[in-house]
Specification:
The structure is a single chain. By secondary structure, the chain is an alpha/beta fold. It has one domain: Response regulator (Rossmann fold). Helices cover 41% and strands 23% of the residues. It is globular, with a radius of gyration of 13 Å. It starts with a strand and ends with a helix.
């Protein structure tokens, strides 16, 4: 089973990304558990559990702590998890 986290401060996008992931995995015959986090801070509060995730989807533009800083802190805990940045802003997409 794949363990996946989605971190986005906007509920609509958190749910949308989760639904897309779960549909994709189901169509390919893979089981997954998807956890949702409304902020990088809340995700990092479960830092000891970060290592359980195979993939983390991070919004780049979030209040308080952006996705880039969240990713840096995740890397301090785990170098194995895949991090996928998600953004609706074309300027971020082009920079990364």
């Amino acid at each position: 089973m794949f363990h996946i986290a989605v971190c986005d401060d906007e509920e609509y996008f958190r749910l949308r990304v989760r639904n897309l992931i779960e549909e994709y995995m189901k169509n390919r015959g893979f089981a997954c558990q998807t956890d949702l986090f409304p902020s990088g801070k809340e995700m990092l509060e479960v830092a000891e559990s970060i290592q359980q995730y195979d993939v983390i989807f991070l919004d780049i533009s979030m209040e308080e702590m952006d996705g880039i800083e969240t990713a840096r802190r995740i890397r301090q805990v785990s170098s194995n998890v895949y991090i996928v940045f998600v953004t609706a802003y074309i300027t971020y997409a082009l920079r990364l």
